[in-house]
Design brief:
alpha/beta; Rossmann fold; six-stranded mixed β-sheet
Length: about 240
């Protein structure tokens, strides 16, 4: 039976670029329309932010309740070692393996994460995804400038819900240090359509969003998403046929 939707979609971008808004919009589309227009099936989302946030919460409890050393982060909100960024990707790969073991293969699994050059960038992050994931994957990169990421990061912050997928934010100084430099352009420069990772060709497209089509949603977002994902679908099928 031929594939009718992506089995794995990797969704990358700077913070607040529109990744979560795209996923929220896709969730609202009826399944039949979602498959027909976007090649996205029933969704299972693997996002590294909840894992990252749990580490901050655990460290706070260790320090303030148990008076023990922090395990993952410094008091001012940075990881103790860069390897923890890579551990997040390994954790997503592990969660995928466990989920796939117990679930019929009729979903689009979305891996959502941001990486800045300061901690290895996408070039290093992708090396920690399993071969099983990469062989099935296609990638959508939501392209915004650092200035637009900063603007939306400030705008979306809700201090009452710092753990929220749609309402969390980074302090300005942390966003600048971690995400001002983004290696996506250099990482994807080898081929206009495919990322070469571990001898696997992963198709990708950029979703331009400096005009912030994701915040208001609606048909304007759906039209752009349809065009970009249709192009990505063609690239994914072409690679599959080789």
């Amino acid at each position: 039976m031929p594939e009718i939707f992506f089995p794995v979609l990797i969704l990358n971008a700077r913070p607040a670029a529109g990744k979560s808004e795209i996923l929220h919009a896709l969730k609202t589309a009826p399944l039949d329309e979602r498959i027909k227009r976007f090649h996205i099936g029933p969704l299972h989302i693997l996002d590294d932010f909840p894992i990252l946030w749990s580490w901050f919460e655990e460290d706070h409890l260790l320090e303030t309740v148990f008076h023990l050393p922090r395990l993952h982060t410094t008091a001012d909100g940075y990881f103790l070692t860069d390897d923890l960024w890579h551990l997040l990707i390994q954790r997503l790969s592990l969660e995928y393996k466990k989920w796939r073991r117990d679930t019929p293969k009729d979903h689009t699994v979305v891996f959502e994460f941001s990486r800045g050059a300061e901690h290895g960038g996408y070039e290093t992050a992708y090396k920690h995804l399993s071969h099983e994931i990469l062989r099935l994957a296609a990638c959508l990169y939501v392209d915004v400038t650092y200035e637009e990421s900063l603007r939306k990061n400030r705008a979306r912050f809700n201090p009452e819900r710092p753990d929220s997928i749609l309402e969390h934010a980074l302090p300005d100084e942390r966003l600048e240090r971690l995400y001002r430099d983004d290696d996506w352009e250099s990482f994807s420069s080898g081929d206009p359509h495919y990322l070469s990772i571990q001898d696997i060709q992963v198709p990708f497209v950029n979703f331009e969003n400096d005009d912030d089509v994701t915040s208001n949603g609606g048909e304007a977002l759906f039209k752009r998403l349809e065009e970009r994902l249709s192009t990505l679908w063609s690239l994914w099928q072409r690679r599959l046929a080789v």
